[in-house]
Design goal:
This protein has 11 helices and 3 strands; from the N terminus they run βββααααααααααα. With 271 residues, the protein is mainly α. It is globular, with a radius of gyration of 19 Å. It binds fe (ii) ion (FE2). Fe (ii) ion binds next to helix 3.
Length: 271
C-alpha cells in the first residue's frame, strides 16, 4: 500500500476507536503515515491553546497531526471531525455509563462508532461529528438507572435531552434501527413520537453501523446480526418478533448505505 492509498480513517489506532483531543499518537511506533507539523489550514492559530479547529494536538510542539496521504485537506478535515468536541463528550458519557455496568455493550458501541467513522467522509464535518456521537450513545438507554420506560431508544433519548445534547442527536438515538416498530409493540409509540425520524442518508448509516456490528464490536453482515439477535432473545421474546418485522426496513438502510459507500470508493468489511 503506498501512502496515497491510506484513508483518513486509517489514522484511528486499531481497537481504540476514537482519538480524543490532545491524545498523542506515537509517531515512531505508528504504522500510519502521519507527521507532526504546523497545521496547514490553521497557520497562526497554533498558539498556547493549540489549533482552534479541534485537531489532535501534539502537546510538545502544539501542532496538528497531518496525514501524509494525497487526500490532503479533506483528510485533515475528516480527522478533525473524529476528534471534535461533541464526539469527545459522547465518548465520555458512553464510557461512564456503559464500561463497568455493561462492558459488552461498551465494546459494541465502540465498534458501531468505528463503522460510523468509516462512513463519515460521506458527510460534512458537523454531520460526521453528529453521526459518530450518535453511534457512541445509541445504546446508553440499556443502563439500569436510565431505564425508566424499559425501552432503550426512548430512555437514551430522554437522558440525552436532559444532558443538553442537540435535539437532532436525541432523535437519531430515539429512532435508531427501526425503533418505532418496537415502540408500537410496547405501547410506547406516542412517547417516541416526541422525536422525528429524519429518514436521511445519515440515519441510514447509523442503522447500517448498528446492524453490521456484533455485540462484541466486530464487523458482521445484517443476516448474521439478525440471526444472532433472535437466538439471544429466544423465539417468544418481543425483540425477536420486532426484529423480524423490522428486517426489510433495516435491510433497506444497509443496502442504501453500502451503495453510497461503494460509489464514494470507501471500503468496508461486511464479514
Ligand atoms: Fe446497537
Amino acid at each position: 500500500m503506498n501512502s496515497s492509498q491510506y484513508m483518513w480513517s486509517d489514522l484511528l489506532p486499531e481497537g481504540s476507536g476514537i482519538v480524543p483531543i490532545g491524545n498523542v499518537i506515537d509517531v515512531a511506533d505508528s504504522h500510519f503515515p502521519i507527521k507532526a507539523g504546523p497545521c496547514g489550514l490553521h497557520a497562526g492559530l497554533n498558539g498556547p491553546g493549540g489549533c482552534s479547529a479541534n485537531h489532535a494536538i501534539l502537546p510538545s510542539v502544539r501542532s496538528c497531526y497531518l496525514p501524509l496521504s494525497a487526500s490532503g485537506v479533506g483528510a485533515l478535515t475528516r480527522y478533525s471531525a473524529v476528534v471534535g468536541s461533541m464526539v469527545e463528550r459522547a465518548e465520555q458519557v458512553a464510557r461512564e455509563l456503559l464500561q463497568d455496568e455493561l462492558p459488552r455493550r461498551w465494546e459494541h458501541v465502540q465498534g458501531v462508532a468505528r463503522r460510523a467513522a468509516l462512513a463519515s467522509p460521506l458527510f460534512s464535518v458537523d454531520d460526521a461529528d453528529l453521526l459518530v456521537a450518535a453511534a457512541l450513545l445509541h445504546d446508553i438507554g440499556y443502563v439500569s438507572r436510565l431505564s425508566t420506560a424499559r425501552f432503550h431508544p426512548l430512555d437514551g433519548a430522554r437522558y440525552l435531552r436532559a444532558q443538553g445534547f442537540p435535539r437532532r442527536l436525541c432523535a437519531l438515538v430515539a429512532h435508531h434501527s427501526c425503533a418505532y416498530r418496537e415502540a408500537e409493540l410496547r405501547g410506547l409509540a406516542a412517547d417516541l413520537a416526541e422525536w422525528v425520524d429524519e429518514a436521511s442518508d445519515l440515519r441510514d448509516v447509523l442503522w447500517w453501523a448498528d446492524m453490521t456490528t456484533t455485540p462484541d464490536g466486530k464487523p458482521t453482515n445484517i443476516d448474521d446480526r439478525i440471526e444472532e439477535i433472535q437466538k439471544r432473545y429466544g423465539p417468544e421474546d418481543l425483540v425477536t418478533f420486532f426484529i423480524r418485522q423490522a428486517k426489510s426496513e433495516l435491510a433497506g438502510a444497509v443496502e442504501r448505505t453500502e451503495e453510497r459507500l461503494q460509489a464514494a470508493g470507501i471500503g468496508y468489511i461486511a464479514k
